[in-house]
Automatic annotation (TrEMBL):
Domain Ubiquitin-like: 8-74
GO CC terms in record: plasma membrane
Keyword Nucleus attached: no
PROSITE patterns: UBIQUITIN_2
Protein name (Swiss-Prot/TrEMBL): Membrane-anchored ubiquitin-fold protein
Membrane topology: Lipid-anchor
Keyword Cell membrane carried by entry: yes
Function: May serve as docking site to facilitate the association of other proteins to the plasma membrane.
Pfam name, any one: Rad60-SLD_2
Keywords in alphabetical order: Cell membrane, Lipoprotein, Membrane, Methylation, Palmitate, Prenylation
Compartment annotation: Cell membrane
Amino acid sequence: MAGVQDQLEIKFRLTDGSDIGPKTFPAATSVATLKESILAQWPKEKENGPKTVKDVKLISAGKILENSRTLGDCRSPLCDIPGGVTTMHVVVQHQASEKEKKAANEPKQNKCSCVIL
């Protein structure tokens, strides 16, 4: 019996309303491993998919899940029904490149000029 309770069936809801899964994971699975699974199963026809684990945010029961936590740590007694499927929402946030970060931090130049006649 404990083996069944140590497994969670999860489907990942993408922003367009489509799903990846459901798939069964042990409660000891890390959030980072879930994200790697999402990367591997990401539909090829979808544009702007995540490139790395850092591009993926997982939300369950209204909370953003941290990579170092396990499914067991993130389990919500109010939302997780034994034998049911847990839905986690997937948000893709591409990380800014170093060039983009530098450009965002540079002071803006004033581009207006005055002409005195």
